[in-house]
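Hi P.,

Sorry for the delay on this. The queue was packed all week, but I finally got your sequence through. Input first:
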Amino acid sequence: MTVRHLTARLLGTLCALGAGAALAADLVPVKIGVLNDRSGVYFDSTGEGSVVAARMAVEDFKPEEHGLKVEVVSADHQNKPDVGASVTRQWYDRDGVDAVFDVPTSSVALAIAQITKEKNKAFINSGGGTADLTGPACTPNTVHWTYDTAALANGTGKAILKRGGKSWYFITADYAFGLALERDTKAVVEKNGGTVVGGVRTPFPNPDFSSFLLQAQGSGAQVIGLADAGLDAANAIKQAHEFGVRQGGQTLAALLIAITDIHSLGLDVAQGLAFTASFYWDLNDGTRAFAERFEKRMPGKKPTSYQAGVYASTLHYLKAVEALHSAKDGAAVVAKMKEMPTDDPLFGKGMIRPDGRKIHPMYLFEAKAPSESKGEWDLYKVLETIPAEQAFRPMSEGGCPMLAGMTAK
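Then the structure:
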């Protein structure tokens, strides 16, 4: 090769590198933080699986083709509001995070919502359940994606009432989520002709439900409502099975349960439990395809509804950022998310209401009997599809202060 040819090739390479660097410099930077429980009662249902789901969404979005450069970081909030608040402030103030995703544990989620508003970032909640996030604690910077306590109460509460479960006793985790779930389910029970005969508060987290279950058995209630989640819910269900609660004629209402909890319990224990959720990996071709890809990254695991919510909400968030060509103004990004219809392979078509509530169908499921299951993760059967417009609390009943002067439906 001549010196002239070598020089020409070198110049061409340098030009290409320069053009690539210029292109990269033109990309809009976006930094997403997945904040959840990586070591406690929700580590299996959120944890690393939610981080994987966010990264899958980023890859599927192909950000560079849309003018974005996206980074995903993660942290453990340990189910403690002060820890979650500290991480979030550091992310926003020092680390350049534009949006926080997931956040199970409602007390942590409520704290993050207020910090996010203060810093004008975006908070897209999937794991936290309290309906207050789109009620008294709503902000223009929050979207509540996957489910909430009002939808769980609507689904499971009404279903058990229809089956004749009129008198209820609650075993409630004594923190924001448990209290909100009891409140919302109690309202549904009483509105539909049922009664609440009593209840007990339990520490969070809590490995031993023996004394609480004995009180519930002694109450004579037809239904024992478990207003908890994660390993707490699994422990309560397992111990109720050992105590013969359902064999004694009482109905156990698992007001929030994840597929990872059902899987760990086994169908011998979980069979017949009715519960409400927004996602199941085996619902349709889209959910099955996602679950297959997810399992390659999380061997031996199927995605939970919370993890599916992180995937879908990350996709929609990135579409809004692309439309604005910026992630810096969190309220503007959330407003754009509300303006754009939602559409993804896991939740289908939907929308985000002015109060921040994402709307999609919910499903009433029942845990299969062992004889009905055809595989390790073949755990649910669909009892009922609850239409989107019926699944969630009307805006007019939520008490969101942002809606003052607006027509709430």
